[in-house]
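note to self: the first set is below, dont mix up w the second
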Amino acid sequence: MIETCPSEQWRPALENAFDFAQKQVLGLVERDPDFYPMYTRNGKWRHQGEAWTHWCDGFLPGMMWVFHRRTGDTQWRELAERYTTPLEPRKMDRNVHDLGFIFLSTYHRWYRLTGDRPLNDVVIQAGRTLALRFKEKGEYLCSFMGPDSLFIDIMANVGIIFYAALQTGDAKLLDVAMKHCLTTRRVLIRGDGSSSHEGMYDLESGEFLRQSTQQGFRGDSCWSRGLAWAIYGFTSSYNAVRDPRFLQTAEACADFYIRETPANGVPLFDYDLPADGPRHLDTSAAAIVAAGLLRLAKLSADPAKGTLYDQTARRILLTLSEKPFLARGKPGWEGILTEGVYHLHKGLGVNESVMWGEYFYVEALDRALRGA
């Protein structure tokens, strides 16, 4: 069970880590301008490793927007605009289920800064495009793997459909987002608050067939990053529409994470890994959870739970901001966090820096330091 972190001891460590994150990102853009990395190999962002799917381009400029907001440094804004602008054509991209990751981290942050309506239009169109993945039979948004596949990851992206629906008053879009969340809640979240990575459907009948996985240990195991997407996604969905079922699910998943994760807050890559095999950790899951818990802490109707979630998030961030997980003091290491995992079965980004871990870590640092 995770230890809590109730005192102010975390603030200097988090401020230093935020400064280090800026240094690492600036080094990346100076060393390899206009490159959008996904994961490191031996600590280096530039390599010839497989991408598997094209879903990470929003995270690097997303960090730049966070850096600009916190520091006011115009260099970060210039870089953020430079790295965000090329992403606009992907508002029509029907090949991935990750448009929330790409546009909420970039164009939405840009719009919130400027109020420029064309920027908001990009976000809205991305939400409409993602909604085209909806399957009436089964009532879910399908993953990039195929029309019969539902991923827990999509919970962390469905917020862009809620956003588009609420911005435009489009009841059909809202219905798509609601149905997807309720389906995910029913078929991928278990009674103990654990989650499955993937659900498989019969396309003719829309019948749910089984839980499965692409990245977890087994179809019936709990892949920690999938659990993190559930915590973050159901929290964001509750924040959007205040449906109490989403809050209940977010809290159930958060309670499982707190109960089953080691005291320092960093989980194994999968909660069901055998004791006699490799025991890989995943700092990216911890970073996503920290960002989600800081928001959930302010939304929970139970003050005691809110305090627990807030203190737990700060404990996770304090752990990530110190050795061995922060890359400070590792000569030549180009990322911010070590010990992340992309795809264990494919051997991609194992015990490396991963771009989503970097982004959600920076988001969580900023949220904790702002008290927001």
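second set (the one i keep forgetting abt)
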Amino acid sequence: MKKIVVFLFALCGLCTSLFSQTSRDTVYTHEFLELYHADDLKWMTRDQVAIDRYIDENRKLTDKSCDVLFLGSSSINMWDGIEQDFAPLKIIRRSYGGSAVRDMLYHYNVIARGYRPHAIVLYVENDLSGDVRHDLTVGETFDYLRVFVNRLKRDYKGVPVYMLSYKPSPSRAKMIPKQKLINALLEEYASVTPNVYFVDVASSMYDAEGNLRQDIYKPDKLHLNREGYNLWTSILKPLLMRYKQ
């Protein structure tokens, strides 16, 4: 059992709404909260090859300014043509396949610190992947995501953070109820948190009858194909174009 120390908000007491805090709410901010999880170091560092590549790229990157910094897992990493899709925006992408938000926190200094973005996009879904060995609960995942976003807000004061909704996919159909729950939590969190925005890409992935579209995925029925990314681009790009410098 490994101990992972992270920054968190400890919410003490029940509120009528998840985030409707008033002067009467008993809310304390603790500098550290120790979270225990069964992830060992080998699992946390399983993508070290990708991290080493980013370390090397960062050394060679003379200009770390960008219009948008994209962070996340394989849905960002496998976005072929992302530079063309978001042109004329200048983007920097720091994503790697299989990433979970807790190992993104572990690698935070490499993937998320030291850049100069005008906006940040975050997408990661692998903390709720259906893997009984490593999955977190919805509540734990929500906590880790808030920790990650709070670090971004600390390091990039005034820079907007766009959190994409968890996407439904046929190969993870059993996870959709949990995805809907965390999407609701993230949407409300964004609604009361300055410079944090929730972007619903999930709704566009259903047809008019409410069925999950089958034509927007690669053969693995998990990752998006070009049609799927066209959907995401049509939703996200208009929101980001305002940050073109």
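remember for set 2: The chain has a mean pLDDT of 88.
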